Amino acid sequence: MARLVMKFGGTSVADLDRIRNVAQHVKREVDAGHEVAVVVSAMSGKTNELVGWCKEAAALHDAREYDAVVASGEQVTAGLLAIVLEGIGVNARSWQGWQLPITTSNAHGAARILSINGDELIKRFKERGEVAVIAGFQGVHKDTGRITTLGRGGSDTSAVAVAAAIQASRCDIYTDVDGVYTTDPRMVPRARRLPKIAYEEMLEFASLGAKVLQVRSVELGMVHNVRIFVRSSFDKPGDIDPHAEPPGTLICGEEEIVEQQVVTGIAFSKDEAQISLRRIADKPGVAAAIFGPLADASINVDMIVQNVSGDGQTTDLTFTVPAADYERAADVLAKARKAVGYERLDGATDVAKVSVIGVGMRSHAGVAARAFKALAERKINIRAITTSEIKFSLLIDAEYTELAVRTLHSLYELDKG
Ligand code: ADP
Ligand code: ASP
Ligand code: MG
After folding, report:
1. CATH topology of domain 3-254
2. Which single residue of 215, 300, 302, 325 has CA 20 to 30 Å from 120?
3. In 281-413, where do the E strands start and end?
4. What residue ranges line ligand 2, CB within 6 angstroms?
C-alpha cells in the first residue's frame, strides 16, 4: 500500500467525460489498495475566462477580489469529481483551500503556501478509506481569512505541497503529455521524452518557459524530496498494467540519473520584452538608479547587457522584463530619466528567449559557442546572452523562435534516442 497524490490539469478535466476518465484513474489506484489525495485544476479555459471577467469589470481591480473570482474554477472541478467518484462507488469528498486549510502568504495572485494541515486527510484515509479531492491553485491567508491563489499553473504547487504534508510516496502529475520532453513536443514533434530529469534542471526548464510544471512546485519538491512523476491522463485507465512502470518522467535527485547528457533540453519563452537605454553616463550609481525603481515596482529584470555607446563616451544598457510588465517598466524609467540621464529608450516586445539546459555543462566547455555558430549560420541575430552553471539563454527576434529551437535541438542531438 502506498500513499499517492494524483494531480489533474485543466485539459484532463475539460468536460464531464474527461472527469469520468479521471475518476477511473483514481478508482484504479484505490482498488490497488492505495490512499489517495487528488488535486484538480479548473476546467480548461475556465481560469482565462475568469481572469478576463475581472479585467473587464475593472482594469485596476482589487487583487483580493480577483482571487475570490479565479479560485472558483477549481472549486467546481473538485465538487464534480467528488460527485462522479461517489457515483462509481469510491468514497470521496471535496476540499477547498480554506477548509483544509492550506495557509498562504497574502501576496494575492501569487501567494506562497506556508502550511497545510494533512492530519485530517490521513485520519480519513485510515478511518473511512476516503479519497480527498482538493481544489488546486487556492489557499487562505491566515490573518485576514481571505482566499488567495498561487499564480498561473499553481495547482502543480498545491499537489506537491499536499504530497509533502501527507508524506506521500509519490506525486503523480497527470497532464496532456506523457512526460517532460527535450523541448515542447508541440513545437518540435521529434522531441523525446526524458525518463528522468534532475530537480535543478527541471527548475530551469520551468522558469525558462516550459509550462509543464510550475516553478514553485519543483522548488518545493526539491526541498521536501517529493518524487514528482509527470504522466498522461489520456492513457485508458483499463489499459494500465498495475505491475508495470507507466510511461512518464520522474523528477528526482541528480545522483539517480545514470546516463547524463551534456545538454538535457531546450526551453523557450515568448513572454519577454527588451529595453535598451541609450547613452547613459558611465559612472557609479547609474545601475542603482535604473534597477532600484524597477525593483520597487516589483518588475523582474532578467538578462542584462552593458556596452559602450556609438560615441565611445557613454554606455548603452540592455535588459529584459516580462512582456506583461513592459508598459509599466517604460513608465517607471520615464519617471527616472532625470536621475539616470539616458538619451533614449528603445523597446521591443517581439523578442523571445531560447535557453539550453543541462547539468553536464558544469564539466564541459564550449557548449554555448557551438550554439552561436549554428544560429549565425541560420542568420539569426542574438540580441543578448546570459549564462549560468547549467544553462545559457539567448534573446532573439520572436519570428525565429521555432527555427532556433529546432536548430539547437538537432545541434545537441536531442532528437536521437
Ligand atoms: P496542465 O493543464 O495539465 O497543467 P499545462 O498546459 O500547464 O498542463 O502543461 C502541459 C503543456 O506543457 C504541454 O501540453 C506542452 O505543450 C507544454 N510543454 C512545454 N515544454 C514542455 C516540455 N519540455 N515537455 C513537455 N511538455 C512541455
Ligand atoms: N487553473 C489555474 C490556471 O489555469 C491553475 C492551474 O491550472 O494549475 O493557471
Ligand atoms: Mg499546468
Report:
1. Carbamate kinase (3.40.1160)
2. 215
3. 304-308, 315-322, 344-357, 384-388, 391-397
4. 9-10, 41-42, 47, 73, 136-137, 152-156
